[in-house]
Write a structure and sequence with these properties.
Blueprint: H1 2-13, H2 25-29, H3 35-46, H4 54-57, E1 60-62, E2 70-80, E3 83-90, E4 94-99, H5 105-111, E5 124-135, E6 142-152, E7 161-172
Antiparallel strand pairs: 1-2, 2-3, 3-4, 4-7, 5-6, 6-7
């Protein structure tokens, strides 16, 4: 009985394996997942055979003239940052909610994000959310994560505001031993 109990406690201490199908997109947009998990999540979206794919989630890919963005219509409204949307967009390293909001000034102020394009008629700004390094003790490899909450307007989405998280992750090779 003691051996069985110790196995249960040891198993409970192990983190659950990452499953992209269970990722909450509100967490992705708010920079609440780490960069390594973002990569797994983003790859699963484009893999039609993945249980975490856009197709499995009921997302419909939207036509776009932009080479930078891929965007999807969601089957149900998503509440993020006090707004609802049915559209999300991806770049290579970021995911954004596309909001029906022409002027993001108040949203920027509420999120502590300053417009670096003030006076231009455009909005672009970011706030650092996480900058960390996780090192695997056995291999010595590390993963440097930098996540920023970003707000922008973009000509690919006229009259809309983009808000979401950019994940910049880098593998750190161990020093020679």
């Amino acid at each position: 009985m003691a051996a069985l109990l110790s196995c249960s406690v040891a198993d409970a201490a192990q983190p659950a394996p990452f499953d992209p199908a269970t990722v909450d997109i509100a967490d992705v947009l708010a920079c609440r997942i780490d960069g390594g998990h973002y990569v797994g999540f983003a790859l699963s979206i484009s893999d039609s055979d993945s249980p975490g794919s856009a197709k499995a989630r009921g997302w419909v890919k939207l036509p776009t003239k932009s080479l930078t963005f891929s965007s999807y219509h969601l089957p149900e409204p998503l509440g993020v940052f006090g707004y609802n949307t049915n559209v999300v967009a991806f770049t290579g390293s970021a995911m954004f909610a596309v909001l029906d909001l022409q002027d993001p000034t108040a949203l920027g102020a509420a999120q502590g994000i300053t417009n670096i394009l003030e006076g231009s008629g455009q909005f672009k700004g970011e706030r650092l959310v996480d900058e960390s390094l996780k090192v695997d003790q056995e291999s010595g490899f590390g993963f440097k994560n930098r996540s920023t909450l970003q707000i922008a307007t973009n000509s690919a989405f006229p009259g809309k505001t983009l808000i979401g998280c950019s994940y910049d992750g880098q593998v750190q090779i161990p020093a020679s031993r």
